[in-house]
């Protein structure tokens, strides 16, 4: 398998004289054949600025940096795929940080590109090609006209058309999981926040956070429009907002008004779940699904990344347990990173966390971060590095009743409940 690299103009090549390597955290490692899958549809190859690719010279057998003015290349994976290794690279300028994306090792083999990744879910529902840009533009124009003055639709139109956010696009297309952002503030200071970064962070946020508080009427309009489809999901908590539960009164009133008018679809919240009292109110208002973002079940790691304000990981656990006891389908948005998530101590702690909270689904999400910045931020490894592939196998064995996936799934029991309510 050959190293893949990019020239200064961004053109991508393979180098027949160098065998590709990957990285598991800060450890450069061989890439095994059973860790590779063909580059999936919807993946994007990107040049990693200020880096140099590392490979094994085929003739000398020594590991070295590729010669010339070239950059390492990584793949950005679509929904449904979990990366197993980072690209093999060294930074040519250690003061520079990579943009906030999830870089996956890519190689050239047997006449095509392969990536170090695992197919963890069906990628088809979230394949970008299923979002026709012409249709989307028409739908955006139609709803902006129909709900003239609704600032949420105006905000989401920018997310859909400029950022090409599929969840925002779904809101206009009336399908799958649609977005209803509500919060401009947050009770955490996530190191890798994609909507708000300190000026001195070194990496700008790739999205713009909403800067207004929507009214209940605006929220209800978006929810009712999307829930016209029986199996649709409408979700609070998007990448363009802060923590949705900080606006619990708005959410609770909107949910109550919506459920007075329709029992269609499912109401979801994507949350850090730190505000347990607020989460309880939202659950009691008729929540169907709750996805909680986490990066670890260990306090020191969690706190280093999330920088929680006024809550702890224990509050998160209480929120999950309360929701599960009330019949809400609970899941975690598990931000994963090769060389960290597969640490022995991380795996052991997460298994116990899942069991205590009665989670039904683990959504494996590739963490978008500069690797060096993240590894310098968090505690050092205490146990063995198991490897991402083995980590997934351990979860499948130890948590047989938990689905490992990539996005929110509606279980048959909830669908049957909604069908009965429609009768």
From TrEMBL:
Domain Radical SAM core intervals? 172-420
A Pfam family of this chain: Radical_SAM
Q: Which domain of life is it from?
A: Bacteria
* PROSITE patterns the UniProt entry points to: RADICAL_SAM (PS51918)
UniProt keywords, alphabetically: 4Fe-4S, Iron, Iron-sulfur, Metal-binding, S-adenosyl-L-methionine
- Please list the cofactors this protein needs: [4Fe-4S] cluster
This protein's name: Radical SAM protein
This protein's species is Paenibacillus radicis (ex Xue et al. 2023)
